[in-house]
Design a protein that fits this description.
mainly alpha, three-stranded mixed β-sheet, 4% strand, two-stranded antiparallel ribbon
């Protein structure tokens, strides 16, 4: 048989009857050995035999959460949902006390507050002992009236949450229930009457000017023996005592009724005050939750704003650092370019000065070479012995032709000197261009090494 509720079962308190037991405990019951062996295919008629075999009440016990047979039968009753007459017969059972306890527990779970007060309050006069199994798996001594009182008052019993029921004074105010009268009140009245008779005060003394009591004998009658006999005085005294007892009983009953009404009013005021306190406490807790939630939201918003502000400040700082770094790099480049231009200008000036000095030196060399050639020619013309010999022989050339030859020779010398100067100048220019090229490469390497040093990179090798 499945663990499902019967098809024609009615919903209890707006839900499936088995859902009155919590899911974790219901699962433990389904997995227990007692449920699988004893509660399988159990009907309402066979349920009576299992209830008569119970020897204790309780919920779950042990470290592995084992359910008691009492709790398994309660879940089985919720599953098969027996009729109300069967439950009432369970409650009226006097011989088997655990059958009564099972019916009372099921009635408290399923039915309303009127039925609970109507059928369970008479069981408060049952004082029989019950064995209750606690969570440790040990038996504790309890009584039937304690069990019923816990069912009516506690919110959780036998590890099952009890459905809420209406307060008794609400039904009394709506004339749905009469005031509950305890069976102990008659015994209390008898005890009070006995204590009052024992402590009855003496009648007050009669004043002297009052009229004599005709029933009381005079001293003369006492002397002559004509007083009233005790048998004749006893009826009056008995009636007087009975009247006084009736008056005292009425006054006590009135005071008792007054005390009951005051106690009932106190109970109603107490319940109202407790409800008011619960409502105020609930409102205070709700207000605290709302304030706490608002505070948490405010803290989150402030934290988010602070984080956003920090991000913005960090971004601004990074942007400023980038701008400053870019400006510094640009300034370094400009300074480096100015230095390069300055060095180039200085090198250009040095080259020009060097060219001027070389030109001046070349001119001096030309002038000296001309002087030397002129001297050598003059010597050769005037003092050479072969020349005199030729002049003496008459084989000399014409002077104009000689002058022409001498001009040609001079022009050749000039061209040779010019060619030599051009070669020297070309050689000097090529050497200067090589030095300029080398200086530019060195400057570029130095600039690159400076930039790499700022970036933390190793320098370039020339």
């Amino acid at each position: 048989m499945a663990n499902r509720t019967v098809k024609d079962a009615n919903s209890v308190h707006g839900t499936n009857p088995q859902y009155l037991v919590e899911k974790i405990i219901r699962t433990r019951i389904y997995d227990s050995r007692y449920w699988k062996e004893e509660c399988f295919a159990l009907s309402a008629e066979l349920l009576v035999d299992k209830a008569m075999a119970l020897r204790s009440i309780g919920g779950v016990y042990g470290g592995n959460i084992k359910p008691t047979p009492f709790l398994c039968l309660v879940l089985k009753m919720l599953q098969i949902q027996p009729e109300k007459d069967i439950i009432i017969e369970f409650i009226k059972q006097d011989e088997f006390k655990y059958v009564r306890a099972l019916g009372a527990f099921y009635l408290r779970l399923v039915y309303g507050s009127l039925d609970c007060y109507k059928y369970l309050e008479p069981l408060l006069n049952d004082y029989r002992k019950l064995r209750f199994m606690d969570r440790a798996g040990q038996y504790q001594l309890s009584h039937m009236d304690e069990f019923i009182d816990l069912l009516l008052r506690d919110e959780r019993f036998c590890d099952i949450i009890m459905p809420r029921i209406q307060k008794r004074w609400v039904h009394e105010a709506n004339n749905e229930l009469e005031g509950r009268v305890s069976l102990l009140e008659d015994d209390l009245d008898d005890l009070e009457s006995e204590s009052d008779e024992e402590e009855m005060p003496l009648p007050p003394p009669r004043p002297r000017n009052d009229a004599p009591d005709p029933t009381r004998p005079t001293p003369r009658d006492e002397r002559h023996g004509r007083g009233h006999s005790p048998s004749r005085r006893s009826p009056q005294r008995d009636t007087r005592n009975e009247r006084e007892r009736e008056k005292r009983h009425r006054s006590r009953s009135r005071s008792r009724e007054r005390d009951r009404g005051m106690e009932r009013d106190r109970g109603m005021d107490r319940d109202r005050g407790m409800d008011r306190d619960r409502m105020d406490h609930g409102r205070g807790m709700e207000r605290e939750r709302m304030d706490y939630g608002r505070g948490m939201d405010r803290d989150r918003m402030d934290h988010g704003r602070g984080m956003e502000r920090d991000r913005m400040d960090h971004g601004r700082g990074m942007e400023k650092e980038r701008m400053d770094y870019g400006r510094g790099m640009e300034r370094d480049r400009m300074d480096h370019g100015r230095g390069m231009d300055r060095e180039r200008g200085m090198d250009r000036d040095r080259g020009m000065d060097r060219d001027r000095g070389m030109e001046r030196e070349r001119k001096r060399h030309r002038s000296r070479s001309r002087e030397r050639r002129h001297r050598s020619r003059s010597r050769s013309l005037g003092h050479h012995p072969h020349h005199h010999r030729e002049r003496g022989r008459g084989d000399h050339r014409h002077p104009e032709r000689m002058e022409r030859d001498h001009g040609k020779e001079r022009n050749r010398e000039r061209e040779r000197d010019r060619d030599r100067g051009d070669r020297k100048e070309k050689h000097h220019r090529s050497g200067r261009s090589k030095r300029d090229n080398m200086s530019r490469e060195d400057l570029e390497i130095a600039e690159a090494n400076a930039l790499r040093a700022k970036l933390g990179m190793p320098p370039l090798q020339p």
